[in-house]
Write a structure and sequence with these properties.
The chain has 732 residues and is an alpha/beta fold. The chain is built from 22 helices and 24 strands. The strands form five sheets. Strands 1, 2, 3, 4, 5, 6 and 7 form a seven-stranded mixed β-sheet that branches. Helix 9 crosses helix 10 and helix 11 packs antiparallel against helix 12. The protein is globular. 44% of the residues are buried.
């Protein structure tokens, strides 16, 4: 018997003992057993590793679930579907990143199996990076599957899409996937699901899946109840050398301090070169400007790219859950985690680690608690009363919306709420009711903490050694209800950046409640403080703070020919990428003028920047910089500013916004687009601003063609989009 087989057999035996521990030992003690585990134990199908059908057959999987995911959300839903298939119907699933597989044999999926596509739409109706090849195969009529045809007769499939209705191409990729599969003869099981991130993605998913499951069960000939509650993971308390324990490091390279490529799987701890407040000091809002050093990191970026900042959870939420889960005194205990089915659910973060580290660095305990998660955890409620409250939140959609969604309650706060504790009080073991929730259930229910993305506000030609971030700090008031008082809610990523700004400019010892405005009622605000020193103090070197980052590529780019006119519309922090655009042109102009002092940039196209803010001395971002850029670019850079709470008004007394300034310049805009083949870029609010800008552009283009905005204007705007001359970087 080989050593590998022995380890695998031992691991399976230990897992079996763990799952049936109550039957074998007659005890319900939640103290985890100390076992030896093998985190790499997995059944592989052998043969071609890119052949998903072979892996399905080898692992006896009747479902294969492909996810097109850019930020990790679609992957989370794919895993949830797989878990529910197993618990409700006993169906085993293979959860796949489509980038890792070939699709020639999509027509060879066994008749008693089904394929599920969980597809997010990215950018301007584009597939996510990992789903590009999949979509090309589905859309290309010349792509033949294994039987020599572009047909999928007999294939059973399910589609759930993730989108946002404030974007023009809402759930375009899910709809396109459904359309192409149907054209090729495949049969959809149940309705196509469409989740709207602008409203309630979770509720859309819950409503859809209750229609989908019966259709899938009937088609596959399975009955509900064939599954059962099974663990995804085994958590064990173990002893490891401290230098081998992950305390917040995001990769093995970071733990071992070895060099390598820095990307989403191995973020770079970028030192903060400088930071400052961009809004008026003492005002109601904060906007952080932070410059992240990338010298000698191997990281390269282009104007228009995004930077992913990897946050941590605020300490108040970490401590809240440590108390609720009875882990306060064991917070630093080393644990290992093993997946019982690695093809269904991989351990989502590096191990071994500690309880505290998982809650602080690795799982998203700061998100609003999901209704399905509350249903899973209700069985662990410490009293009948708290169980009834938890079940009601999980099953009554309106009650959940009023209490949890409107109250913006995180998981730890929900556990306090249903046990009658004050969610505004700082948690301690003495004032918190213990919930006997196994930690493996927490790991299974709560998704991985994901990076927060920001448009880079600099150009590598102007700032080759640093990446600049411009971020408004998210802070808003929740809706108060009975038992859940209104309070301030803080965004995780932007408030981490604000903590770092204060630490960088004031020194860590002065970082005391930096977000409170004068006169703020302390009982209504829990200011989020973070463990900004990082694992083992790695993010604080002699008071030079660091934050882990990676760069995500974008197609939001200037035209390569500087003779092409550029129209940029970006109110508020929507101006961030355009600061990089202008710097890009300034750097090129300086070189051009030095090389050709006589002609200079006389034949360049004009850059128009339409910017908006509330007040000239309140939130006018980079107000002091724009004149300096104008000194280089001259009349090739024209900036138009709408100051909504000051300055002139329309004849009817209403405020002037960027779209109004665009209309005022309609003759020049029309000429730039119709005659000089200019480009339009829009960055900022997707719900209102970008739609208003489109309406004005359609009016300008429609009149230029002697028609209406609705007909000719829409046609011209669509043409700009098709030719990638109208690009957006918007959010809701």
């Amino acid at each position: 018997m080989s050593s590998e087989y022995l380890v695998l057999t031992l691991g399976a035996a230990v897992a079996g003992v763990y799952v049936f521990r109550d039957v074998i030992f007659g005890t319900s003690s939640k103290a985890p057993p100390v076992v030896t585990s093998n985190s790499k134990a997995a059944v592989e199908g052998g043969g071609d590793p890119r052949d998903f059908v072979a892996r399905m057959k080898a692992g006896k999987k009747r479902l294969v679930i492909f996810y097109g995911s850019q930020t990790g959300t679609a992957e989370e839903y794919a895993i949830r579907i797989a878990k529910e298939a197993k618990s409700r119907y006993g169906l085993a699933s293979l959860v796949c990143d489509p980038e890792e597989y070939d699709f020639e044999n999509l027509d060879s999926v066994p008749e008693n199996c089904a394929v599920i596509f969980v597809m997010a739409t990215y950018g301007e109706g584009e597939p996510t990076d990992n789903a590009v090849q999949l979509m090309q195969n589905l859309e290309d009529p010349d792509f033949n599957f294994s039987k020599g045809e572009h047909r999928l007769d007999g294939l059973k499939y399910v589609v759930f899409g993730l989108g946002n209705k404030t974007y023009e191409h809402y759930n375009f990729i899910a709809r396109k996937t459904d359309e192409k599969l149907e054209e090729m003869g495949a049969t959809r099981l149940g309705p196509r699901g469409e989740g709207d991130d602008d409203k309630a993605m979770e509720e859309d998913y819950l409503e859809w899946k209750e229609q989908m499951w019966p259709a899938l069960a009937e088609a596959l000939g399975v009955e509900e109840g064939a599954g059962g509650d099974t663990q995804d993971f085994v958590v064990t308390e173990e002893t490891h050398p401290i230098e081998k324990v992950f305390l917040g490091e995001l990769s093995a390279r970071a733990l071992n301090k070895t060099r390598g490529i820095h990307d989403a799987k191995n973020p770079y701890p970028a030192p903060i070169v400088t930071s400052r407040e961009l809004f008026r000091v003492g005002g109601e809002r904060n906007c952080v400007h932070i410059e992240l050093g990338i010298e000698d990191s191997g990281i390269h970026y282009q104007h228009g790219d995004h930077v992913g900042v990897w946050p941590t959870n605020p300490e108040i939420e970490v401590n809240r859950l440590l108390c609720s889960l009875g882990l306060w005194d064991r917070r630093n205990t080393t644990i290992n985690i093993v997946s019982l089915d690695p093809m269904l659910a991989k351990v989502p973060f590096p191990v071994p680690t500690t309880y505290e580290t998982v809650l602080r660095h690795y799982i998203d305990i700061s998100a609003v608690a999901g209704r399905q998660t509350l249903g899973i955890l209700s069985k662990f409620a410490p009293t009948d009363d708290s169980k009834q409250k938890m079940v009601k939140l999980a099953t009554d959609k309106d009650h959940y919306h009023n209490v949890v969604a409107e109250g913006c309650l995180r998981l730890g706060q929900v556990l306090q709420y249903v046990t009658g504790h004050d969610i505004l009080a700082e948690s301690t073991p003495d004032n918190t009711t213990l919930w006997a929730i196994p930690f493996e259930v927490i790991v299974s229910c709560i998704p991985r903490l994901q990076p927060r993305y920001y448009s880079i506000s600099s150009s590598p030609k102007y700032h080759p050694k640093s990446i600049h971030v411009t971020a408004v700090v998210l802070k808003y008031e929740s809706v108060g209800t009975a038992g859940v008082p209104a309070r301030w809610v803080y965004g995780v990523g932007s408030n981490l950046l604000l903590n770092l700004q204060y630490a960088t400019t004031s020194g860590h010892e002065k970082l005391v409640e930096p977000l409170l405005m004068e006169g703020e009622k302390l009982e209504r605000a829990h200011v989020p403080l973070y463990a900004i020193d990082g694992p083992r103090g790695a993010y604080n070197a002699n008071s030079v703070y660091k934050v882990p980052i990676h760069v995500r590529r974008s197609t939001f780019r200037l035209p390569t020919n500087p003779r092409t006119p550029v129209i940029m519309i970006g109110p508020g922090t929507g101006v961030a990428p355009f600061r990089g655009f202008v710097q890009e042109r300034v750097a090129l102009a300086e070189r051009t003028i030095a090389k050709h002092p006589e002609s200079g940039i006389s034949d360049w196209g004009t850059m128009w920047l339409f910017y908006g803010c509330r007040g000239a001395n309140e939130d006018f971002l980079y107000k002091e910089e724009w004149p300096k850029y104008s000194e280089v670019l001259g009349d090739k850079f024209q900036m138009h500013v709408a100051i909504s709470r000051e300055g002139p008004r329309k004849p009817d007394g209403s405020k002037i916004y960027v779209q109004d300034l665009l209309w005022e310049q309609r003759e020049k805009i029309r000429d730039a687009l119709a005659e000089k083949k200019g480009y339009v870029y829009v960055c900022g609010d997707a719900k209102n601003m970008s739609k208003a800008v489109e309406a004005v552009l359609m009016r300008i283009l429609g009149e230029a063609n002697g028609g209406s905005a609705a007909v000719e204007g829409q046609k011209e705007l669509n043409m700009l989009k098709e030719k990638s001359r109208y690009l957006t970087d918007v959010w809701s």
